[in-house]
Amino acid sequence: MPKREENDRDLSPPLKPIQRNQNKASFYEKIWKTFTFITVPLSLILFKDILVFEEWTKTNVSPRADLSDLWLTATAFIVIYILRKAFQRALYGPVYTIIEDKHQGEERVERTKRVVKWMYDVMYYGSLTCFVFLFFRDANFLPPTLFGSGECSKLYSEFPELPKVPYLKQYYLIQLGSHFCSVFEQVMFKRKDLKFYEYFLHHYLAFTLIFFSYLTQMWALGSMVLITHDISDIFLAFARAFEGQKHFKSQQTVVYGVLGLTAFMWAYCRTFVFPVCAIQTCFVWWREQNELNLPVWLMIKHEFTFEVSLLVVLLLMNIYWVFILTKMFVMALTKKGVENDYDPKLLKKN
After folding, report:
1. Does 286 have pLDDT greater than 90?
2. What is the pLDDT of residues 18-56, one digit of tens each?
3. Which domain holds residue 331?
4. Phi then psi for 149, rounded to 5 degrees?
5. Contact 329, 6 (CB under 8 A)
6. I need a surface site. Which of 3, 35, 258, 267 has the fewest CB within 10 A?
7. Exposure of 141 by Cβ count < 10 A (0-12 exposed, 13-18 middle, 19+ buried)?
8. Is 8 domain-assigned?
9. How many domains, the chain?
10. Distance CA 290, CA 287 (A)
């Protein structure tokens, strides 16, 4: 197994295009950093509304989301963290040898870890997506655009009752544990990321949306957001893992297909189905509830408004990433080659 060069600082000097991309990343990092410093404090402040609603459900709704069920989330966090580490230990050596030679020293070590992580993501998101279509295909909120037979308008049809979908609670709590694991790893081990705030904001938005929607009984909405993002993540993780190894340039037809399919799936799931189904339905329901102004709505009004705001921020990030993917695909077609213009370097100090 190749020696891990974690302390090797003798890296090749960056080329001018890489420096340009780092400056570009720094510009967007400032935007994501601003969103982060707004989002995190607000989510902590609004959590009190969640607790008020959670207390109300104890005597008014059954079955209900219960904080005691978070033991499954804690278990999922531990299991997923161990699985990720096991993947790193098992695949680090073989993957290290196929990383492009231009990545050396600490950057090569980090890129190897990322490629292994992306390989894990293909397995994880692929398994979850198979689970969804096996058990959720008859859910009344899964629309034909996601191969279901339901309607997006049904996302709140049973609120504050829970959707009657088999294994939905287990799916939800495992997803919560997985996203908490991503937040934990980003904060604890990836502070040197060139795009730390971009990744942190994305993981934190996902975790907060799942956690808030879980305790407010909005499992249908949360599931819709998770499904649209997990499907596209399968393709992105595969594309990034494929691009990260040095032999991919000899497989040009496959490269074009992978990049094109990834850009299409991201655009379809994250900038079409996600806003048309989830966000639009949220706005319609928000307007209807404001007109009715029922007591149960007043308990979660501010929290729900914040949650919709987070969905809009997530949509903006999705649009940004679709633009990057589409740009890479067009460049691959016009220049007859692929250049990763998004993360040619992963660490801040190069």
Report:
1. yes
2. 444 555 557 888 898 999 999 999 999 988 888 889 889
3. 32-335
4. -125, 15
5. no
6. 3
7. buried
8. no
9. 1
10. 5
